[in-house]
Amino acid sequence: MAPTFVPGLQLCRDFYEQGVRPLLGSIPHAAARLGPGSEVLGFDTARSADHDWGPRLELFVDTAAVDAPALSALLRSRLPREVHGWPTSFEPPDERVRVMTATTTGPVHHRVVIADVATWSREHLGFDARFSIADTDWLATPTQKLAEATGGAVYHDDLGELTALRAHLAWYPEQLWKRILAAQWIRIAQEEAFVGRAAEMDDDLGSRITAARLSRDVMRLCLLLARRYPPYTKWLGSAFAALPDISPIADALAEALAADDAEDRQSALCDAYEAAGAWQNRLRLTYPVNASRRPYFDRPFPVIDAGRFAEALAPGGSRVGAIDQFVDSTDVLMQPGLARGLAAAVEPVPGRGPAA
Questions:
Q1: CB-side neighbour CA atoms (13 Å) of 41
Q2: pLDDT at 264
Q3: Do strands 299-303 and 294-296 pair parallel, antiparallel, or not at all (unpaired)?
Q4: Nearest to 94 by CA among 80, 75, 77, 113
Q5: Which listed residue, 66, 280, 288, 337, has the most CB atoms within 10 A of its CB?
Q6: Is the pLDDT of residue 354 over 60?
Q7: Is the pLDDT score of 352 beyond 60?
Q8: CB–CB of 19/88 below 8 Å?
Q9: Cα dihedral sign for 206, 209, 211, 214?
Q10: CA torsion, points 341, 230, 146, 320, in degrees to nearest 10?
C-alpha cells in the first residue's frame, strides 16, 4: 500500500528539515520547492505520486564557493531513504520523467537540484530576474513559468537572492499589466460574434467550439484581473475556480458550454463578459467602460464589443500581448529560448514597426 498522502509542499519541507538541512553544515543557502510540479501550484493529489512528485528540493548556493557536484554526492550517500514513507530516490536517474523508487542499498538518486539563483533563473525563465526586469523579458515569459517561479514555498533563505527574485516577479508593472489585459480582451473581440454566426450556418459544433475557446479566454482574463498568473490548460480550471467571488462568471461559462440553443449560449457568454467588464471598472485601471452587451453592428448577435476595453487599457497599443496570448504549444512555451525568439519576432521595434 502507498504511504498516506501528504501535500507535496509539506513533504518537501520535511525532507529539507529532516534530511537535507542536517547535511549542509554552515553552508549559506536557500531551499525551496519551485518550478514544474503540481504541488508548486497547490493542485497535487494522491494521483500526482505516479511521476515527478515526492521529496524534492531546489537548493541554491554560491556555486563559486561551494562544490556542487561534491555536495550532490554527499546527499546521494547520506540522505535518508524515505520521508513519511515516501522514497527519496527516483528512477531512472537523470531522466526527464522519474518515479520514486524504494531502495535499501546503494546511492540515493535524489531530486535535489543544486544551483545558484542566477543560473536557475536563466534556465527556467530565460533571463536573470534577480534585478530589474525589462518589458521584453516579461512579454517573452509564459504565465505558467511565472507561476512556477512565484508559487511553491521557500523553506530557508539566508542568501536573500531567491527572495529578491520572487519579489521582482510577483506581478507585472502596471502599464504592462494593462497591455496584457488589453491583448486578452482583443482575443475575445476577435471571435465573440462567431458563436451566433456559426450557428446561423447550421454549424452547431463550430458554435460550441468557439464558445469553449471564448470561455477559456474569459477564464484567463479573470485570473489576470485578479493578479494571478494563469497556469497552463491542466490547471486553468482549478486556478479559475479558486478565485474569490468567481461564481457568477463561472456559472455563466458553465451555462454557455451546456446550452443546446445558440442564443442561450451567446447570452450566457455575454453575462460573463459583462461581469468581467464590471470587474475591470472596479479596479479603476482606466476610465469606466460601459459593460453592457450590444448588437454586433447590424447583425443579430449580442456581444460586449471587447475591443472597447482593450482601447481603454492601451490606446493604440500592441494587440498581440505576451507570448502565451499568441502561442499555444506547450512544447514551445516550456523552452525559454524558443519563446523568447518568437516574442522578439512580433514585438514592435520603436520607429520600425514589427521586427523582421
A1: 25
A2: 96
A3: antiparallel
A4: 113
A5: 280
A6: no
A7: no
A8: yes
A9: negative
A10: 30
What number of H helices and E strands is found in the chain? Answer: 15, 12
Residue 112 has phi, psi (to 5 degrees) of: -100, 110
Q: What is the pLDDT of residues 185-235, one digit of tens each?
A: 999 999 999 999 999 999 999 999 999 999 999 999 999 999 999 999 999
Q: Where are the domains of the chain?
A: 8-168, 174-325, 329-356
The model carries a pTM of: 0.92
State the pLDDT at residue 348.
59
Q: What is the mean pLDDT of residues 245-261?
A: 97
Q: How many other CB atoms sit within 10 Å of the CB of residue 246?
A: 18
Strands (E), the chain: 30-33, 57-60, 82-83, 86-87, 90-91, 99-100, 112-115, 153-157, 294-296, 299-303, 348-349, 353-354
pLDDT in tens, 171-180: 999 999 999 9
| Bond into 92 cis (ω within 30) | yes
CA–CA distance from 60 to each of 11, 101, 138, 343 (Å)?
Answer: 19, 25, 23, 29
The x, y and z cell numbers of residue 327, run together, are 502561442
